[in-house]
Structure formats: C-alpha cells, structure tokens
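To close the chapter, one final illustration. This time we ask the reader to focus less on the individual chains and more on the assembly as a whole: which components sit near each other, and how the overall shape emerges from the parts.
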Amino acid sequence: MPTLSEADSKALLAAHGVTFPDERTVESAADAAAAAAAIGFPVVVKLGGDGIAHKTERGLVRLGLTDAAAVAAAAEELLAAARPEDGEVHLLVAPMLKGNRELIAGLHRDEQFGMTVMLGVGGILAEAVADVAFRLVPISEIDAAEMIDDLATQRLLGEFRGEPPVDREALAAVLLGLSRAAEADPSIVSADLNPLIVVDGIPTPVDALVEVAS
Amino acid sequence: MTRHPVEAFRALFEPRGVVVAGVSTHPGKFGFVSLHNILASGYRGTLYGTAREAGEVLGVPIVASVDDLPEGVLDLVFVCTPAAANPDLLRACAKKGIRAAFIASAGYGETGEEGQRMQAELVALADELGMLVAGPNGQGVVSPPVGLCAQIVAPYPPAGQIGIASQSGNFVSSFMNYAVQTGVGVSRAVSAGNAAHVTIPDYLDFFAEDGATGVALAYVEGVPDGRAFFERTRAVAARKPLVLVKGGATAGGQRAAASHTGSLASDDRVFDGMCRQAGITRAATIEEAYEAAATFATQPLPRGPRTVVLTTAGGWGVVTADAISRSSLELTPLPDDLRAALDEKLPPRWSRNNPVDLAGAETRDTIPEVMELIVGHPEVDAVIYLGLGIQSNQAALMRNGPFYPDHGLERIVDFHERQDARYARCAAALSERFDKPVLTATELAVTHPDNPGPATVRETGRVCYPSANRAVTALDHLWRRARYLQARA
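The assembled structure is written out below.
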C-alpha cells in the first residue's frame, strides 16, 4: 500500500485539525536557507518525496542547523542523495524542536473493530513500555480525554524536569483530528505521528506518515 | 438494532409451557436431567415431553409425536434429540404455536464441515419459521422469576436482577454458583452454545429491554462483527450496567479460544479501549465479574471517588488503603468536622484519619454511630467496612467449647451474635438512607459463611466480600461506570 510523503501526510491530517509546527516545502538550497531564516534557527532539513518512507535510515534528515550556510550546505547534500526511484523530491524545512518527553499517536485498522485511534508513550523505550490506549473511530472529546487518562505513565504527563504539564486539550485535539481524518477519508489505511515532542507542554507532531489504499 | 422481537425472548425466558424433546428414562441422559431440573425448580407452566414411546416420565405426560401435543399452550421446546431429527421437530413445533427453542443437541458447527452445514440450515429454518432458536450445543436456559431451570447441569440460582449470557455453558454454571453463594440472584441465564441464530449481543439487547433484568453479565470469546458488537453493547450499557469477561485476552488464551469456539482475537488493548468507549465494565476474572454485577445489582452508584475505610483493626485498613490507592478511587483525607465528630465518640487511640481504625475502642453502640457519621458526611462518597463477624467467630468457639453455657458464656455469645447481625443491617440501612455504597468485607464470608455477620449481610440482599481487595475492585467498577455516565450526562 502506498505511503504519502511526509509533507502530503501532514497536509492531509492538518486539513482535519491536527496542528503541525510552522514548516516549509522548498525546491532549492537557496530557498531552504530563506525558509529557515523565516522560521527561525535552529532548524531541521529533510529530503521528502512520495517514494521516500524511511528518511532516517537513509540519512535524509539533518538536525540542529543553526545558520543559513549550514542549511544551504545540508540542502545541497540532501538533493544530491536523491535516487532515481525516489521520483520527485523536495526539501522540508522545519523548526528544531526540543523536549524531554515524546508521545506517539496514530490510526490503525483493526481486523475486528475497524479503524482505531491510538495514543502511546513514545521515545526509544516505547516498544518495551507498550503504554498505549486505543479507541474506535469516531471518538468524542470525552473519549479523547479518557484515552489520555488511560495511559499508565500519568507522571509523564504532569510537570516534568522543569517543563510544564502536557496540555491535555492540545493532545485531545491531535486525537480528534486523527479521528476526523479517518472518518472523512476512508482511503486512509494507517497514520503515524511519531514522535509528538512535548514542547513547553504542547504535544507537537514532528513527523507524519499516512498510508493509503491503492 | 434488535434482530429478534422481544416477544420471542419472552417465549424463551417466560414460556407458558415447555416441551422437552427427546426425554429419556435414564437418569444420566440429558433428556432426563433437563426434565428433572425443570420439575425440581418448581416450574409452574404446562410441561410435556416427547420420546419414542408415549407414556409418563417423572409424572410428566410423554407423547410419541409433536402432533399429539396441545396447541397454543406451549411456548418453548427444549431439544435433546439428535441433530438430524431437529428440522422436522422444529417444523412440527412451529405448527403447535411454539415460538422458541433451546437446542442442547451437539453435532453442529463444533464438529466440522457437515455440522456447519446443518447449523446454517438450522438458522435458515429458524428464520423461515419465525422461531427463536437458542444454541445449539448449549447447556440450557434459566429464568428464576418463572421458576424455569431448563438445563442439563446445575445449579438453580435464586431469583434476582442479573441477566447472564455466556459463550461458554460452564461459565453460566460458574456465575450461578456465585449467585447461590452470595445470595445475589439471577433474572435470566442462558448458555449461547454455538450462538448460531441468537448471539450474545442479541441476548444483551433483550436484557436491556427486560424489566426483570437490572444488570447484564456476559462471557465472550469471539466477536465476529466487532463494529456491530461495539454499537450494540454501547446502547445496552447506556441503559444498564454491562459486565463482560473476555476469554483469550493473551496470546496463550487466544490459542485456547481458537480451539474452543473458533474465535480469533484483536489486540487485547483494542478490545479494552472498545470496552471503555462503550461503557462496558470489563472484568479480568469470573469471580470479579460476578461480584461487579452483584454490586451493581445491590448498591447505589457512588457520586464521586471519595472512599472511607471503617475498620476495627489496623492491618486490614492499611492493606485496603493500598488497594484503594491503586484504583481509580480516592482514599479521601477525613474532613475536619468529621474527625471532630468522631473524636466525640471515640477514645483518643483511634487513628484520627482514613482508614478510620477504631483500634478496639468500640463499645455497644460505637460502630452504628460512627458508621452513620461517616456514611452521612457530604464529603464521603463510599464506605468500606471491615471487621464484621470477629466477635461472633469468638462466640462460635465459646458456643462449641466445653464451658458453654456456664460462666456467663450464653449471655456474651448471644450479645456478640446480635451485635454482628445489627452491624450488617446497619451498613445496609445507612447505604439505603444516604444513597451511597457501603461494602462489607471479611474472609468469614467464605471461611465461616454461617457467622451471623456475613449471614446477615446476605439476608440484607447484599454481597459480603471475601476480602477488602475484592470490595475495592467491585467499588472501583461502580465508580468507573458512574464517572463514565457523569461525563456523558
């Protein structure tokens, strides 16, 4: 089943109310540097395209670029790394977000119950911890709030290492946006927001991957 | 959403008359046992049997052909005949006005391809005849409000408000054994068997409509149409508490379920989320499920999570405080005015916090007075009472010892037994008066069920929980449901 590019995945989910950080899609290194200046440093630059699903594995993500020269250089390298099978490619310039906590959220189709919304604790230990909650699409605001309450690791959602508590309404809005997207677009097979970095309490999706039916 | 009309379920659960098809004179055969159980439970409707030879078994008239049955007085046929004979039997029964069948016969979908074909034909025939066909391969149907125990196994439970539907017949028995033990009874119980024509959600839909049923209790392994199951159970749970146990929650359990009922399972976390979304009370075990259902049937819902533990001994209170802290309930700090009011009643050595540990300070009226202050306090939503029956346990030792009734033993034994009975009645009365759950827990409920403490709790129609942890679990289920309903009010 085909996956949408990161930019298209984000555009699809944003249309249903999932809020993403201010980021730009550009074609050239010069435009990337200009976009970075507009967003504010530091930034991340990634190579995107419909044929590119595993950016990290291929080294197509450059983190923590602190000035225009670094952005332009990274952009040149990324464009040069594109392969013919990647098809049309572009550069994604996004703010470099920092937070100590990561969550994951998504849509998954269950064989028995159909489309579900998922929320979980993210980060490198996510799989081992397996602290996740599911609900069936569509969810209500109450369902979204109860999903957040269902996570076992509630301490992670409170004040944490000097950071404010996770904004539950903002997190619920992400879940509701996912649910609306699944309801409105039956071609969606799955969606992953991984990770959602908690920035000053706001869970902010920095990557998105939507899989659609062919 | 209901697939079968309510009247069809009335024919199954409140039949004016029953015919047992395939009656046997051998007391080990289902065709005998089912007839015996219907008679033993004191069923008051008309009763007939069919067998190869006409005559009488256990005083019940037996006919050789359904054609010889009276018309318009029988609603239910309980089928013990071989699967191959059943289509003709059901056609003949329909002509006599019989609107429901319970098929105990095996040899259907559980046996392979040929059985599956016969099962599909059975469903088609049921639809053609407009007959509700429960089973096949089930243990039976029980309906204490009309004295009906049409099943091939024991027990016959007391009448009550709990409606049971189970994909496993033996869990129907397990649930009903708990009904016998706790005294909190059953409105309807049915073993869905292969659930060919009537499924678990179908029974639950009826329970939602059924005036005799206050709480629905179900065991499921497979959920063939998950989305419909969700929508239908959510509608049931919006009207009545619905307690569910799911077999096959783990990989090991799922393999076992696949061979038992052929059920395939979702990720259990998806099932769990579905239950929360639908307002289903999901229990991990059969005893937890029965206790949750029995608690819904006998206690009011708490208005909030603030729970106070009243105990006559320290250790119990500590462990109960741990259990509450691990639940969604709140071990609420004692309000200042309540602490002051209790100070008036108790010597200074009491705990002065929650748990309220009387530390052996009670005299004749202490427990009823203290309990009333706690249950009646507006900042207390629920109470767990520990320590009932201790003195009666001592009294039993005295009563059965070598010195009774001399040395004043008769008097003290009598006093202790009256006091424990009084405390049990007090807990029930205060719960009713203030419309708050008050749960009593002591292991004496199972170790010494005749102790006047737990025995009187049963007389008040409530559960005496075998441990404080189990009381906390039951109360936690009540609060979770109350919170679910409050959020959606």
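Chain A touches chain B through 18 residues (CB under 8 Å). Chain A has a mean pLDDT of 93. With these observations in hand, you are ready for the problems at the end of the chapter.
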